[in-house]
Design goal:
GO terms for molecular function: hydrolase activity. This protein is globular. Strand 3 (44-48), helix 1 and strand 4 form a beta-alpha-beta unit. The longest helix has 18 residues, at 264-281. The protein starts with 12 loop residues before the first strand and ends with a helix. It has one domain: 3-Layer(aba) Sandwich (Rossmann fold). The chain has helices at residues 61-69, 97-112, 117-121, 130-141, 160-175, 178-183, 189-201, 235-243, 259-262, 264-281; strands at residues 13-17, 28-35, 44-48, 72-77, 124-128, 148-152, 221-226, 247-252. 46% of the residues are buried. The chain has an eight-stranded mixed beta sheet with strand order 1-2-4-3-5-6-7-8, with helices on both faces. The protein has 284 residues and is α/β, with parallel strands linked by helices.
Length: 284
Amino acid sequence: MAEPVTTLRDASQSASIALPANDQRGALTIEYRWLNPRFADAPLAVFLHEGLGSVAMWKDWPQTLCDRLGMRGLVYSRPGYGRSTPRPHDAKLAVDFMSVQARDVLPALLDALEVNAAERKRMWLIGHSDGGSITLLYAAAFPNSLAGAVAIAPHVFVEDISVASIAEAKTAYEESDLRAKLARHHDDVDSAFYGWNDVWLSDAFRSWNIVDELDCIRCPLLAVQGYDDHYGSMAQIDTIAQRASQTELAKLDRCGHSPHRDAPDALNDAIVAFIGKHNASAGI
């Protein structure tokens, strides 16, 4: 059963989730927001944010997309981000932190919100950057419990361009107004930033790779990348298509790492066409 929810200052809600017994973090509070809840019989789209994202940082893009799709939506802030339970400052993220989010945290949130098995079979995941990688990992872990997935600027292995840009982000955070800007969206901005930045810049993370797991994905999959992305190259989504043959690719001109901000019309058109086609063929 879902725990009682409390209203947060940005009109989101919170839910308490229980993680596996061997997880030392105990219960976590997750910030979330429903979109178009009046569409009770419509499929659900779940949005997974980037490495420094949150419910608020999506702004109105998930709502705009759900309106075009005629679907319900769920946006949430992962632990350590937004108004969700912050990461303790002395706790480093493990190299497999994205796998933990896919296998444990997201299923626990869906359980808490009483999204049942039938709803999950009709559900779409839409993830950006680290959220795109978590989308792929969830699709691989639960191949029979998902209508389809959209991975936007995902990572499936570590590239030099990614590490260089993340190192530049650290300099910007410490020497510019980036910290102040992010602080508007996270209860503990240092926890959010350094949790993400430290693990990506660690020596151990250079060997992180989820390519083999792509073989387990069975659902329809759209992979999107901008040609001007400074956090990853087209090799990321080309690799996905090589390992999951049902993948369709959308390569966007004049678009950097955030297609929902850089090229929203082109991105929305690609997603609406893709999801509409597959929902229709599945009778959803």
